Amino acid sequence: MFRLRILKSLLSGGLGQTIDRARALIRLEQQVVDCLETKLAGHCRVANLKDGILVLQVDSPAWAGRLRQQAPKLPAQLRETGGDLASVRHVRVTVRPVEHRSVPLRHTAQLSAKSAEGIEAAAETIDDEALSAALKRLARHGRPSGRS
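^ DUF721 domain-containing protein, sequence as received from the core. Prediction below:
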C-alpha cells in the first residue's frame, strides 16, 4: 500500500509530466516520420518541440544535409497533419553525437599463475633493485586478486 502511494505521488508530480512529455514526443515523431521519405525517416528522431520550433536529430551530417533540404517545406506538411504539429513554424536540424566506445589506454598483461611464479623467482635473483621491483610488479598480473 505504501509503495502504491509513493508511485502515485511520483506520477502526479514531475515524473508524471516527464512521462507525458515523452509520450507526446513519440506521437510527434510518428507524425514527422510519416511526412519524410522512408530512408531519411529511419535516421531522424524528434528531439523537441517548443515555441513553434521543431528540433529534429539525425545520425550523420549526410542525413542532416538531406533533411535540411526538406526543412523549408516540412512545416506546411506538418500543419496539414494537425494536432500538436500545427504550431510548427520552423524546423531545426541537429546531428546526434556519435557514440564512441571507450578504448583502454593500456593493455593489461595477462599471465598464468605459473608464468607469474617464474617471473617472481627471476626477480629474486636479480641484483638491480629497479629491475627486480619491475619484474615483481609484472608478476602480480598473474595472481588472482587479493594475493600479494
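The two ends are 51 Å apart (CA to CA).
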